[in-house]
Write a structure and sequence with these properties.
The chain is of the alpha/beta class. The chain has two domains: 5-201, Alpha-Beta Complex (2-enoyl-CoA Hydratase, Chain A, domain 1), CATH 3.90.226.10; 204-250, no CATH class. It is 46% helix and 16% strand. The protein has ten helices and ten strands. Helix 1 runs parallel beside helix 3. The longest helix has 22 residues, at 144-165. The two termini are 32 Å apart.
Length: 259
């Protein structure tokens, strides 16, 4: 795996780091590929209950794709298709991840960085964080697979505002437009992201996975099938339900086991 994606584990919480601080964590084709590999591996691990995604250091989550790589990797349509395939495969891995994803956003979160953050379930940023997608200035379009998560998150109007104007938003405006979940003082970003992950990890992991699955399904306009409606009641046969119910009555913290 490329050494610009780092993965650490602390109990049930995993952290995936875009680890290229000398370039503000600008994304290369290899980083896109390896980010997808890392997230897919963690998604398959039942011991994981939450994943934090962040950039190395405190200057940037990511400013997007490394423009200096374009001469060798995105110089023409054929190369761009191959590059896009790596991006879109990783976007699918993020969207399909069974575990909750928390974006810990320091500083700049632009272009491809914003696309990654949009695919997370929660986004925690600092007051100095900045957001945007000024790719019009490069003569580039945001492909369907890249635009869809933004439209799902903030709607068509805000997505087009970002793309057509190319304006950079501060943290407060980003929160008002729904791009971020929570804005905290810059010094508190890591602590708040960790506390968020811990709150998630304390809950029943099967329930978190079901809620993510149901939310994805509700974005699909097809009518729900009888089997899908029936699945909503599978939790009542889980060991975690029995643990949670008994713990509530006993007024103690539940120790969920994921079964």
């Amino acid at each position: 795996m490329n050494d610009s994606i780092a993965v650490t584990r602390d109990g049930q919480i995993a952290t995936v780091v875009l680890d290229r601080p000398t370039k503000l964590n600008a994304l290369t084709k290899a980083m896109w590929r390896d980010l997808g590999i890392a997230v897919s591996a963690l998604s398959a691990d039942d011991g994981v209950r939450c994943i934090i995604i962040r950039g190395a250091g405190e200057k940037a989550f990511s400013p997007g794709n490394d423009i200096t790589e374009f001469a060798t990797e995105r110089a023409n349509k054929a190369q761009a298709i191959a590059y896009g395939a790596a991006m879109h495969e990783t976007a699918h891995a993020l969207a399909a991840c069974r575990h909750p994803l928390v974006a810990q956003i320091h500083g700049i979160c632009v272009g491809g960085g914003l696309e990654i953050a949009a695919l997370c379930d929660l986004r925690i940023c600092g007051t100095s964080s900045r957001f945007g997608a000024p790719i019009k200035n490069l003569g580039l379009v945001m492909a369907y697979a890249e635009m869809a998560p933004l439209i799902d998150l903030v709607g068509r109007a805000v997505t087009l505002e970002l793309l057509l104007e190319g304006r950079i938003l501060d943290a407060i405006e980003a929160r008002e437009k729904g791009l971020v979940t929570r804005v905290v003082p810059d010094n508190d970003i890591a602590a708040e992201a960790r506390a968020t992950a811990e709150r998630i990890a304390d809950g029943a992991p099967l329930v978190a996975r079901w809620h993510k699955k149901f939310a994805r399904r509700l974005a699909d306009s097809r009518p729900l099938t009888p089997a899908e409606r029936d699945e909503c009641f599978d939790c009542f046969d889980s060991e975690d339900f029995r643990i949670g119910y008994a713990s509530f009555l006993a007024k103690r913290k539940p120790g969920f086991v994921g079964r």
